[in-house]
Design goal:
The complex is a heterodimer of chains A (about 675) and B (about 300).
Chain A lengths: L6 H4 L13 E7 L5 H9 L4 E4 L6 E9 L2 E7 L11 H13 L3 E7 L3 H11 L6 E6 L1 H6 L3 E2 L1 H8 L3 E3 L8 H12 L13 H14 L10 H9 L3 H10 L2 H13 L3 H20 E2 L8 H9 L4 H42 L5 H38 L1 H15 L7 H6 L4 H6 L7 H10 L6 H15 L3 H27 L8 E4 L7 H35 L9 H8 L1 H5 L5 H9 L6 H10 L6 H8 L2 H13 L4 H11 L2 H29 L4
Parallel strand pairs in A: 1-4, 1-5, 5-6, 6-8
Antiparallel strand pairs in A: 2-3, 3-4, 7-9
Helix pairs in contact in A: 4-12, 6-12, 8-9, 14-15, 15-22, 19-21, 20-21, 20-27, 20-28, 22-29, 23-25, 25-26, 28-30, 29-30
Chain B lengths: L3 H15 L6 H8 L3 H13 L3 E2 L7 E2 L1 H23 L5 H12 L4 H10 L23 E4 L8 E6 L2 H14 L5 E4 L9 E5 L2 E5 L1 H6 L1 E4 L1 H8 L4 E2 L8 E7 L3 H9 L7 E6 L6 E5 L2 E5 L1 H6 E5 L4 H4 L1
Antiparallel strand pairs in B: 1-2, 3-8, 4-5, 4-8, 5-6, 6-7, 9-14, 10-11, 10-14, 11-12, 12-13
Helix pairs in contact in B: 1-2, 1-4, 2-3, 4-5, 4-6
The chains are: A alpha/beta (about 675), B alpha+beta (about 300).
């Protein structure tokens, strides 16, 4: 179906040598909200790194576990509810399991949600792989009045079952001991399988007769038959290529005739699970109102819910900026100190060398460094909200608004983060489950006015419109937000016609935060950003510095200025001269850079930017400039973040192209309409 | 509880249907002599009670439970008109208003006694049919042939004379009022549409088909509605529904099944404010569903429908 992942991509670098025995590979799977990462993190600690499944934008986290003189490779697969290929995550998980054939699969289930999370176990049991079931969150279940007896479950499943409270490290030892028991053949492994009843079994046998005898690769026949009946498109496509037209038509007709089989199969699995669960669960406190129920009365309340969401987001914003500002200042000061030192050291060399190192390269380093505290705090805040279970509630509350723009409720959080800085917002789209929602949100975020653009907006409206400045600011903001809404609606229809965001989301039980998981997650994401995005930001900002500094020493004679002059005719349509175009181009380094560039280019020896600007810009041109500026192509950091998240330059290019078009289009519209009406010219 | 006002609206909906008029908000506003926003509010209310399928800006339709309620009200109305006219000798122009008052205060027992007292009268004094007891009238939904869904069966009601000429001798003979017509699978846009008329395949140009009206035969429509199933989205907080099936594409069905929404499973509505997403409890898990998604999950109310609970 797809090429086998090469070892180089999935093996930890340098972990193996030719002569060393190959460490056993253990795959970790589970539905979302079972606390899988609180199992993976303590087992692998800081040894983890990120791998990619070829061709997919989904990450596999890989780490090493060492204990009792043994080393194992643990692969954390994406959280999935089932193994039918509905989403990229599900495809990657099952392709990995079937193509890589890990030595043992650990399926993590949630004790407080045993019935539903065992569904994945029922599916995994149909694969030819040894399984260990980890029943996590035993403490949460007890609090909800659910008592699980793992021994009963083990007897019913015929596979090792380990009770765990992974967030406190309980049960991890036992889990790995069970894995070793399977590897060494010490455990009497005798898995039971879901029973489908005579009708379905006869149907499965009939499908099997339609399958080709050979050429099915790593896929077990029975599993293929089940997935065909479940309407799995990817498996359908596989068989279409393996069968000649007539035989495929016969199989297809048979499948069409039994379209309802998917319901029967899922029902049979759940029935089988239900019998086990009834035997393995006791509910001493039946009927008690749980903590989750009490909290949700407020968190999802039609009026109180939005207020809680707004308050939470507001406080996070305040806290993040409050906490990060001193660090940002400190880091910024440090970088300029180093820059001064370097300049002094390079005093003998040609001026451009000093400039390149001190301003270009160190400037780029500064951009990356000053982003880090902000990113770390935002990641931590998002991880916290997700870990305690609030994220899903926030998404629920925001869904009505987001739905109108064709987005998923969860898109609200990254979009909102965008008001601070677009970079963590783009990186935060990872909380979204479907690729469609991730891409759409990613393309919309750069339109959200970040702090840098807000600074430019407030300054220019103040300089140009005096008393009416705040009013114009609000007007421009309203215009921009309206544009975000319209573009969201249009982009969804244009890029993903026929797909509407499907909003089916589990609301997990609330529980106390697991700081270790949150910190490790934050650390990994920040590190990831430094490694992947850091170098790109450095290169891009050095390149732009070079454009601004060469060939002459003054910016007026630079390549950037020439580019600005080249764009002057376009600027003419909005009433802007080449200097304002250069300011726009400079804003790509960082949005607030527009002001600094204007100051250099426009202000002579006398006066300040605030007093010179009104002489240069008519109100109409100023308004048009602001519109363009607010919607102009994303800054270097955001572009890099888009590349990092979508794993392609293509979407970054789409973003650049459409925003360039959109911003100038609307800018021209505003200026020309104002001119026709004779307002503010 | 179903209020007299709700019964009035349900009655108005079947009256419109009976006359073959489209059931829209403005038609209802005219029929009930109220303002359109009032109607919209009431329609949402009726939809919450599982009596109608309603989406803004779409033609609404009755749920099986709603149809049973509406035709019962209409039956009582017309029985009273008959009684007031035949037995009490009330003038024709006063019949409607009095019947409107009385119909809501009529118990099933009184309804039976009235019917018995009137003998076998099957029409009201204005000549309209009195719906039979048991509450289910054959829906006389008139649609253009182009709207006849594949697998539905219809009975041709009218065809323009000019269109008959266009069809040629053989076609004109087949396509006459009373002919039983069934839509074949969809053809390419621009191509003639295929129908089976009295057992023989006929091709009709789209514009001609759009001018031919047919009555949708109730059995077929009822089969589409899957007995008493209502969308999950009409359940009120605390109400429990048993899942029957889905009216959705493969992807959503698969996702729902994995989350435990299998046929026969009980789903409890936790939060439903009438707009925006809902929260349900299924297999001990709280799940948020968008309104659109909740409309595609079909359930049967546990404890019976409103019509049987009345």
């Amino acid at each position: 179906m797809r090429p086998r992942a090469s070892e180089g991509q999935l093996a930890p670098a340098g972990a193996q040598r030719e002569d060393a025995p190959r460490p056993a590979t253990v795959a970790l799977v589970g539905s979302p909200n079972v606390g899988k990462s609180s199992v993976f993190n303590p087992l692998t600690g800081l040894s983890q790194h990120v791998g990619n499944w070829p061709g997919k934008t989904v990450e596999l986290k890989i780490g090493l576990w060492r204990g009792r003189g043994r080393t194992m490779r643990i692969v954390d697969l994406p959280g999935t509810y089932s193994l039918t290929a509905n989403s990229v995550e599900e495809q990657v998980t099952r392709d990995y399991l079937l193509q890589e054939r890990p030595d043992v699969v650990i399926v993590v289930v949630n004790a407080a949600n045993l019935e539903r999370t065992l569904y994945l176990v029922a599916e995994a049991l149909e694969l030819p792989l040894p399984i260990v079931v980890g029943v996590n969150m035993m403490d949460v279940a007890e609090r909800e009045g659910i008592h699980v007896e793992p021994a009963v479950l083990e007897a019913a499943l015929g596979v090792p079952v380990v009770p765990m409270v992974a967030s406190h490290g309980e049960g991890l030892e036992e889990l790995m001991a069970a894995v070793e028991g399977l590897l060494d053949g010490d455990y009497p492994y005798n898995p039971r399988h879901p029973e489908f009843g005579p009708d379905l079994e006869a149907l499965i046998a009939e499908i099997d007769r339609h399958l080709p005898q050979e050429g099915l690769g790593p896929y077990p026949r029975r599993w293929l038959a089940l997935k065909l009946l479940e309407g799995d498109r990817e498996v359908g496509d596989l068989l279409r290529t393996r069968l000649d037209a007539a035989r495929w038509a016969a199989l297809d007709a048979l499948l069409r005739q039994h379209e309802d089989a998917v319901l029967a199969i899922a029902s049979a699995r759940y029935e089988w699970i239900g019998r086990m669960v009834r035997a393995a669960i006791r509910r001493p406190k039946a009927g008690a109102i749980s903590l989750t129920e009490r909290l949700d009365r407020w968190a999802t309340h039609p009026y109180v819910g939005p207020a809680i969401l707004a308050t939470l987001m507001g406080s996070i914003f305040w806290l993040v900026y409050r906490l990060s500002q001193p660090l940002v200042d400190l880091l910024g000061g440090g970088v300029s100190l180093v820059a001064d030192l370097v300049r002094a050291q390079l005093a003998g060399a040609p001026a451009w060398v000093g400039g390149l190192v001190a301003d270009g390269i160190l400037g780029g380093v500064g951009t990356v460094l000053t982003l880090l505290p902000l990113l770390a705090l935002f990641f931590a805040a998002l991880a916290f909200l997700e870990d305690v279970g609030y994220l899903a509630r926030g998404a629920f509350v925001a869904d009505r608004l987001m739905h109108r723009m064709g987005l998923h409720g969860k898109s609200f959080l990254p979009l909102f983060l965008g008001f601070g800085c677009n970079v963590p917002a783009v990186l935060g789209t990872r909380i979204l489950e479907s690729r469609r929602d991730r891409l759409l949100t990613t393309l919309l975020i750069p339109l959200v006015p970040c702090a840098g653009r807000m600074a430019v907006l407030v300054f220019i409206t103040g300089a140009l419109f005096g008393n009416r400045g705040p009013l114009v600011t609000l007007g421009v903001l309203a215009f921009v937000l309206l544009t975000v809404g319209l573009v969201g609606t249009l982009l969804g229809r244009l890029l993903f016609p026929g797909e509407s965001p499907s909003f089916i989301m589990e609301l997990p039980l609330y529980h106390l935060p697991n700081w270790r998981t949150i910190l490790l997650h934050t650390w990994r994401r920040v590190l990831d950003f430094v490694v992947r995005a850091g170098t790109v930001i450095l290169l891009l900002s050095t390149a732009i510095w070079t454009l601004a500094a060469l060939p002459g020493s003054a910016i007026e004679q630079s390549y950037l200025a020439s580019l600005g002059r080249l764009l002057a005719p376009l600027g003419g349509l909005i009433g802007l001269d080449w200097r304002m175009m250069v300011a726009l181009l400079a804003s790509v380094v960082a949005k607030e850079q527009a002001l600094a560039t204007m100051a250099i280019l426009i202000v002579g020896t006398e006066g300040s930017l605030a007093t010179t600007l009104p002489q240069l810009l008519s109100p109409a041109a100023g308004l048009a400039f602001l519109i363009v500026q607010m919607l102009f192509i994303p800054c270097v950091g955001t572009i890099t973040a888009i590349v990092q998240e979508t794993r392609s330059w293509r979407w970054a290019a789409v973003s650049l192209a459409y925003q360039a078009g959109l911003s100038f289009g609307l800018g021209i519209l505003v200026f020309q309409v104002a001119r026709l009406l004779g307002v503010g010219v | 509880m179903i209020s007299p006002q709700m019964e009035e609206y349900m009655e108005a909906i079947v009256r419109l249907e009976e006359r073959g008029e489209p059931v829209t908000t403005s038609a209802l506003a005219h029929e009930c002599q109220v303002a359109a926003p009032t109607v919209t509010e009431m329609l949402r209310h009726l939809s919450e009670h599982g009596l109608i399928f309603y989406e803004p800006r779409r033609e609404l339709s009755l749920t099986p439970a709603g149809r049973a309620l509406a035709s019962t009200v209409l039956r009582r109305h017309r029985l009273w008109e008959r009684f007031l006219h035949d037995v009490l000798g009330l003038e024709s122009d006063k019949l409607h208003d009095h019947a409107c008052e009385l119909e809501h205060a009529t118990s099933p027992e009184l309804e039976r006694l009235l019917a018995r007292a009137l003998g076998d009268r099957t029409t009201c004094p204005h000549g309209s049919a009195i719906p039979p007891e048991g509450g289910y009238t054959a829906p006389t939904r008139l649609v253009p042939l182009t709207d006849l869904r594949p697998s539905w069966t219809g009975c041709i009601v009218s065809i323009h004379e000019e269109d008959r000429q266009l069809l040629g001798a053989e076609g004109a003979e087949a396509i006459t009022p009373g002919a039983i017509v069934r839509a074949e699978e969809l053809t390419q846009p621009g191509q003639p549409l295929a129908f089976t008329v009295d057992g023989r395949r006929q091709l009709l140009p789209e514009d001609v088909a759009s001018r031919i009206t047919a009555r949708v035969l109730p059995a077929e429509e009822a089969r589409e509605e899957e007995d008493d199933a209502i969308p999950l989205s009409v359940l009120g907080p605390g109400e429990i529904g048993i899942i029957r099936g889905f009216r959705a594409g493969r992807g959503m069905v698969s996702r729902c099944l994995a989350l435990g929404f299998t046929p026969g499973t009980a789903v409890e509505m936790v939060q439903n404010t009438g707009r925006g997403p809902v929260i349900v409890l299924v297999r001990d898990t709280r799940v948020a569903l968008g309104r659109g998604e909740a409309q595609k999950v079909m359930v049967v109310r546990r404890g019976g429908t409103h019509a049987s609970a009345r």
